[in-house]
Write a structure and sequence with these properties.
- The chain is built from 9 helices and 10 strands.
- The longest helix has 17 residues.
- The model has no long low-confidence stretch (mean pLDDT 91).
- The protein has 2 domains: 75 residues, Winged helix-like DNA-binding domain superfamily/Winged helix DNA-binding domain (Arc Repressor Mutant, subunit A, Orthogonal Bundle); 117 residues, Rossmann fold.
Amino acid sequence: MKLKKSDISDRVVQRLTEYLSILKEVRKYEDGINSIELSKIMDTTSAQVRKDLSTFGEFGVRGKGYDIEKLIEIIEDILGINKVNNVIIVGHGKMGEMITSNSKVLGKGFKIVGVFDKDKKKIGTNIPDLKMEVKDVEVVGEFIKSSSENLETAILAVVKEQAQIAAEKLIKDGIKAILNMTTYKLELPKNIVVVDIDISARLQELNFWRLNIGSKED
């Protein structure tokens, strides 16, 4: 199913990833689950669960709920992680190194196929866990074009002062989706998908609820 950005909210997709995580835990001791049980774990409503899943099709059986293994396969298919998705990393500073030193953090379905940086001291250095070397960022375009497999996703881990320029260059080179690990708010064409991972903002949000936990419970 091919959806337009206007057809679905970011929150629905986020909840899909949460459903998937929950289902993988529940399948350790159950074969099936219904929307009420799933909603309780998610701290939402059964109507919300059914609405989210029905956006992509009808997967449950009335009165019985969902076959967990089958629903996991369906959600993985929807998210496109039932196959390998190639990813490049641009910027091999502390954030980039954190990812390349433990690529399993990317989860199922994602494979780092190239790491790039502009620092001459880093170019050519070996990344043991990935069995590859850091390449010059200037050859990103050539690397993408010469790739035998579809390569449209990049993790941007440069310093924020270079984020906009780096992102624009990636788009020209053929990248269509960017995981932005910088604190800079990118201004890019609407047809480019960007997800921001602002750790500072998430910590601020976390700190607010820590200080106001009574309000959150209400």
